[in-house]
Amino acid sequence: MTGLALLLVVCSALLHATWNFLYKRAIDKRAFAWLFGLAAAVLYLPAFLLLACDRPIPIEGWGAIAASALVHTFYFTCLGKGYSAGDLSLVYPLSRATVPLLVALWAVVFLGEHLSVQGAAGIVAVVAGVYILHVGELSLAGFLKPLRSIKTRPTQFALTTGLLISIYTVVDKIGVSYVQPLVYMYLWTVLFTLIYGLYVFRTAGWISIKSEWHAHPIAIVVVGLLMVLAYTIVLFAMTMSNVSYVAAAREISVVFGAAMGSLLLREPYGRTKVGGSALIAFGLAMIGLAQI
Q: In the predicted model, is pLDDT for residue 291 greater than 60?
């Protein structure tokens, strides 16, 4: 993985963890997600208009945009439900835990990517680090706890979210081969906002939307900015490296997310999270040194 691609992914991960922290604090997650999608569509309109005339979008690009918007609709629904049911330091790491392995599988099967031994080892280290980050105590019972929690709703929402992340990641890797990254990101954001709006108005209603805006106007605007910026950076990184490596490197965000949950939301952060964070950092280094 190139040094520039790795740097872009790490910067994106910090932005990603930041907007997830703000999202976790929302009162009505549905209304908040729709509002920050709307904010992003307005804020990035000038940049879109500036870049949109560069080249026409082929049918394959439009197909990827539509598919990504649809998957992201389910993604934000599951993520919001997970944050409503569980802690940021539980849902955020667990939703990311299976992503590197799933993306690597989809990339090998559908995109024909090849992983080096070093890169594969780095991916495994990241996954193990994310798992350990989720362990409550250094004991057999502690290590088995995440597996035993699979019947709880926060865990189920988190794992479903991880599956959806892996799907849209591969779709977006295909999409940016046809469409300029910021244009691609903007178009699926607008389409997502339209689709998700139907769900939000039906389930939350206009009163909840107005209440959420009055409660968190600055946070909504900031998340709208950060969400598009963070993922556009990732899309650029995808044009430089294997999507398998990019997806795994993004998991450094779980360290940022767990730290924010601990420091700002007073969620517990013990030795296991320190160990998991170190293992993720080691895996990230292995990926950074891997050859495409």
A: no
